[in-house]
Give the backbone structure.
Amino acid sequence: MEVDIEELHAIPYTQNIVGDYTGVGVDVTRADGSTCRAEILCIGELPDQGIRLYGYNDETYWRQGVAVEIGDDISYFDWKYMTSRIQFPKLYWNEGTRQLQITLPVYTGTSFAAEELIVLQYHEKGVLEANYFTLYKFSALINAALDYRFDEESGMLTLIDRRTDREVGTAMLPGETVYGIAGGDISEFVLGDTIRLRVTPGYLTNAAEPQYDGMPILEFEVDVMEMQGGRLSFLLGSLR
């Protein structure tokens, strides 16, 4: 759909989209020829860098579909950018690498509170390409990096970085029997020139879901690797 750029620039950044639209209204034509009213909202901005994110909402694609404005360029992505918890994306512009970092809070539910990391990188031809670090990917890396030791008599659970054999956290779990640990479902990214991933690992018992009470918060550095062809890959670096 065509929307005048001045209309987009007039949309204020807001963190209240429930019953208080402050975006631009547009008429949307469905596949069957009928129409509905939709809203375009500003869901994030870095004013000093001329960067804004716009979210698209209609009856079908609620909280899905994003336009990313960087200077004079606008790129479009089919992202789910928000859950029912109404948490907005976070943005960071890395001037040294010319990368826009975005977190999307798209995982919520029972025992879930995680974000997805997207790093937008310009290719040589000026195309803005998205590189994804999803829950599926970083959860597998977390589980591969963490080991544990559990003393049933004392109830002491010790978390170990299996890459260095270093103890990285403890929890007192008296009365429990721990069969394993799982990481990633409760996590968030801290953006910056160095990206970090904060994780509260869960411990596995006879319960259907991992348990988190009393567990420490671990923080991984995220290593961003440039692959052949300009694509980015993500690994978990040092743990503190």
